[in-house]
Design a protein that fits this description.
Strand content: 25-35%
Structural class: alpha/beta
Number of domains: 1
Helix content: 10-25%
Strand order of the largest sheet: 5-6-4-3-7-1-8-11-10
Distance between the termini: 19 Å
CATH superfamily: Dihydrofolate Reductase, subunit A
Number of helices: 4
Shape: globular
């Protein structure tokens, strides 16, 4: 359990937010993640409410739009960036094709150094080897005071942000799916002390936005 006190954000500093789709039993990815199954077994079901190529409920469309709005930089875990473990090999450049949806700097947590990966559309993946706090500091600097820093996942990275007390807002997209195992949210985070500020729902998901108090 974390003993760190919540970090107070000066008014001139960027807001730190997060969005994550989660099963009703608390998992953000299923078991057995791999290149073939990047979200684990059953994990893609958490994202059916917003995946492109199909019609969606208007509530889900608005929730999906909010995920990328107002962000000037991102912090991401290595497991979300790709399936490679240990030393880097090959030229893996993420799951998202030549133009990822971020259009901003993305700071990837890793234990293994790597040169920046510059993509089309303004996304640059930078690899941070000295921990979450260092990645967040670099993301804040990149975002500036007027745009948000988004903690893009996965579960471990969001848990680190919660444990550090730096998440100003967290939106859970709760999907009526039971995964039973996988990557779990809210592990060793203490009591984040949040209040509900907005909740919307569709047949496919309930979108709850929390604010740190």
């Amino acid at each position: 359990m974390s003993n760190r006190a919540p970090a107070l954000r000066p008014p001139h500093m960027s807001k730190v937010t997060g969005h994550v789709a989660v099963s009703i039993d608390g998992f953000v990815a299923g078991p057995d993640q791999s290149e073939e199954h990047p979200l684990g077994l059953g994990g893609p079901r958490l994202h059916e409410w917003h995946l492109p190529g199909r019609e969606h409920h208007p509530v889900d469309e608005e929730a999906a739009k909010a995920i990328l709005e107002g962000n000037g930089a991102y912090v991401m875990g290595r497991n979300m960036f790709g399936p490679i473990r240990g030393e880097w090999s090959g030229d893996w450049r993420g799951w998202w094709g030549p133009e990822p949806p971020y259009h901003a700097p993305v700071f990837v947590l890793t234990h293994h150094p790597r040169e920046d990966v510059v993509m089309e559309g303004g996304t640059t993946f930078s690899f941070v080897t000295d921990g979450f706090d260092a990645a967040l500091a670099r993301a804040r600097e990149a975002a500036g005071p007027d745009r948000n820093v988004s903690i893009a996942g996965g579960a471990s990275t969001i848990n680190q942000a919660l444990a550090a007390g730096v998440l100003d807002e967290l939106t859970l997209h709760v999907v009526p799916v039971v995964l039973g195992a996988g990557e779990r949210l809210f592990v060793d985070v203490g009591d984040p002390r949040m209040e509900v500020v907005e909740a919307t729902t569709s047949p496919g998901a309930t979108h709850v936005r929390y604010r740190r108090v």
